[in-house]
Amino acid sequence: TRSNRVGVGEAGRQGDDVRSDLHAKVDLSQAGDLNVTVHSKVAAFYGDAIAASAVETLKSLGVEHAKVSLDDKGALPFVVAARVETAARRAGASGAAPPTRTVERTESTTRNRIRRSRLYLPGNEPKFMVNAALHKPDGIILDLEDSVHPAEGRHHSRPGGFGTSSGEGRSSSAGAQRAAVRRFP
């Protein structure tokens, strides 16, 4: 019922031109089950895995009662987790979910290696992250600066699978003179 409703939050992009992304809508309530609905062209193959990722993310935030609608357009696991987390937080979830790596790195990089080339990617566009390792840059930087709203800037703490490239996240706050760079292994 309406009196049990806590809040509604959404995250991600929708539309026919969207790819490698997911739109999440989380309707938190005070009672009821955790109900996840997945709409995807590949739901027969990956629907259960997408729903399981959403449930795991919500439980790590302490969410037990919600209706969740996911419109998948080929999102990778870290995108599913980031979009669901953002939608849940916008709906009012306040649990402290630690970022977890959803794609395991197969090769390690050293911090002091020479980086001759760096590939900058917008941190809010998962479609560019999918094939980033194909170009084999020495470093991949997910840029979270001006084009990414602070509420959307969580992708950088979850990705992996960039091959031998090292990964970094770049962001700056309003009025800051220098951009802060956060490295992820």
Strand content: 25-35%
| CA radius of gyration | 17 Å
Q: By helix and strand content, what is the structural category? A: alpha/beta
Largest sheet: 4 strands, mixed
Largest sheet, order of strands side by side?
Answer: 1-2-4-3
Q: Would you identify the regions where 5 or more consecutive residues have pLDDT less than 50?
A: 153-158, 173-185
- Put simply, the count of helices is 3
Tell me how many strands there are. 8
Assembly type of the shown chains?
single chain
Name the overall outline. elongated
End-to-end Cα distance, whole Å, is: 45 Å
Give the fraction of residues assigned to helices.
Answer: 10-25%
Order of helices and strands: EEEHEHEHEEE
Question: What is the averaged pLDDT score?
Answer: 76
Describe this structure in words.
The chain has 185 residues and is an alpha/beta fold. 20% of the residues lie in helices and 26% in strands. The longest helix is centred in the N-terminal third of the chain and has 18 residues, at 43-60.
List the topology elements.
Elements: E1 5-11, E2 22-29, E3 34-39, H1 43-60, E4 66-72, H2 77-91, E5 118-122, H3 126-129, E6 139-143, E7 166-171, E8 180-184
Parallel strand pairs: 3-4, 5-6, 6-7
Antiparallel strand pairs: 1-2, 2-4, 7-8
